Amino acid sequence: MSWIFLLLGVMAEALSHVALKATDGFSRPLPAALVILGHLTAFIFLGQAMKGMPVGVVHALWAGLAIVTVTLLSALFYRQHLDLTAWIGMALVAAGVMMINISQGHSH
């Protein structure tokens, strides 16, 4: 169940970060409310994920998955595209997330 909470937290955080651009410096109330709600939701889900996983593992997975998810959503919503070097970096982040997942470091 911790993994489900972690993934929900990542999605809430990523959507919140993508909405942050639409706030125009927090001058637009609806996107600003989405950012605040998204961050609050993300922390609630991450707190639940930490009940069954170590803090360091949750944070590492959350950060890595959020980086990749925000990048993909930014390409989709804002047509922001990265060069090959940046995508190689994203692949390395994804590989790191997979390594953490298959390690025994996340068991009690």
From TrEMBL:
Pfam families: Multi_Drug_Res
Entry GO terms, CC: plasma membrane
Chain coiled-coil ranges: none
Chief place of localization: membrane
Protein name as annotated: Multidrug efflux transporter
Keywords on record: Cell membrane, Membrane, Transmembrane, Transmembrane helix, Transport
SUPFAM superfamilies from the UniProt entry: Multidrug resistance efflux transporter EmrE
Family: Belongs to the drug/metabolite transporter (DMT) superfamily. Small multidrug resistance (SMR) (TC 2.A.7.1) family.
Recorded GO MF terms: amino-acid betaine transmembrane transporter activity; antiporter activity; choline transmembrane transporter activity
GO biological process: glycine betaine transport; xenobiotic detoxification by transmembrane export across the plasma membrane
Spans through the membrane: 30-47, 59-78, 84-102
Protein localization: Cell membrane
Topology term for the membrane: Multi-pass membrane protein
